[in-house]
Design a protein that fits this description.
Blueprint lengths: L1 E3 L7 H10 L3 E4 L7 H15 L5 E4 L1 E3 L2 E2 L12 H10 L1 H22 L3 E2 L24 H17 L3 E2 L1 E4 L15 E2 L3 H6 L3 H5 L5 E4 L3 E2 L12 H11 L5 E6 L9 H11 L3 E4 L4 H11 L4 H14 L8 H15 L1
Parallel strand pairs: 1-2, 1-13, 2-3, 3-6, 6-7, 8-10, 9-11, 10-12, 12-13
Antiparallel strand pairs: 4-5
Length: 334
């Protein structure tokens, strides 16, 4: 499993939990962040307690509304839709700008010990959908979204940061926010297969992905993708052809039903490799850990392959220089 922490310093009880359970990774939120030195210490302390060389340290640093590390210590990043707008005028220039900003983002993350970014967002929005995706989407064409996603993924991996594409097999049609309610999409499978799923299929080589807490009634009317054996086996693994590391979206979101323990069991039983629990509630983490189980077999192989990206040798990153180089690009986009 991947777990969150309660605040900006590691508590004794949290350290004991990490040492005992040995989760596959940590996820950072704004509540954990004060400044770069503090965040480095927190991550170092947590990794020391965990005492595993293979450890994913995640964050949601998409840009726009979804950015956990913010000014004045980190760069304000444009929302995905800004690149989509620029693409309409100059496609190659927009992709170049995205590559430059993504490389800067990766450097800022590595500088504090974060090695995994929950991006790119490959969701394809439709008119009338809830704005939980909104400007987090790069555009409304599957092929264009895939081009943006490929640029982000390559930029991160070149800097030793693992990209996690989301929310497979597509969150763009949701009419409610899955943080609060369970979205149900009634679109026919034939339409989903030609639209929403296509960006993920084109990027099925990306080494990690996060599921959507969304019911697709024409595929499985009973369970959201995160806990649906049918969606994970038939759509994500088979139709999309994704054989990388698959993690759930957050267990504590209201879209899922049952106790935290029941949710964790359902996620693993459906075929997700990793359970994600974000809110830092230690009692809930213990309950999830009881059902998350250990990595083994193909799941462990996927995890080790993902970790290998974070351990690759990269050239030293000069943050002041990268920031200066991106200054005009950011001014144009923001």
């Amino acid at each position: 499993m991947i777990v969150g922490l309660a605040g900006p310093t590691l508590q004794k009880e949290e350290a004991a939990f990490l040492q005992e359970v040995r989760p596959a990774g940590l996820i950072i939120f704004a509540r954990n962040v004060q400044d770069p030195d503090q965040l480095r210490r927190l991550i170092k302390d947590a990794r020391s307690a965990l005492a595993e060389p293979d450890c994913l340290v995640l964050v949601d640093q998409e840009g726009g509304r979804v950015q956990r590390l913010r000014r004045p210590h980190w760069t304000a990043l444009p929302a995905a839709a800004r690149y989509g707008k620029a693409y309409c005028e100059a496609p190659e220039r927009a992709l170049q700008m995205l590559a430059q900003v993504s490389s800067l983002c990766a450097a800022e993350l590595r500088d504090v010990g974060i090695n995994t970014n929950c991006a790119p967002c490959l969701d394809l929005p439709i008119n009338g959908a809830h704005d939980v995706i909104g400007d987090r989407a790069y555009g409304r064409s599957p092929s264009e979204i895939a081009r943006f996603g490929q640029t982000v993924a390559e930029s991160f991996m070149n800097a030793g940061v693992l990209p996690v594409m989301k929310h497979v097999p597509g969150h763009g049609r949701a009419m409610v926010d899955s943080h609060k309610q369970l979205p149900v999409v009634h679109t026919k499978w034939s339409d989903l297969n030609e639209t929403d799923i296509e960006p993920f299929r084109l990027l099925n080589h990306v080494p990690a992905a996060m599921t959507a807490h969304v019911v697709y009634s024409d595929i499985d009317p009973e369970a959201p993708a995160t806990t649906s054996k049918t969606v994970i086996a038939n759509v994500i693994r088979d139709e999309i052809g994704f054989d990388g590391l698959l993690m759930s979206d957050d267990l504590s979101m209201s879209a899922l039903k049952g106790t935290i323990s029941e949710r964790a069991a359902a996620v693993r039983g459906a075929g997700c490799d990793l359970v994600l629990h974000c809110n830092g509630n230690l009692e809930e983490m213990r309950a999830a850990a009881d059902q998350a189980g250990n990595l083994s077999g193909r799941s462990e192989e996927r995890f080790r392959a993902a970790c290998a990206i974070t351990q690759k040798d990269v050239f030293p990153l000069d943050l002041p220089e990268l920031r200066e180089q991106a200054r005009e690009t950011l001014a144009e986009l923001l």
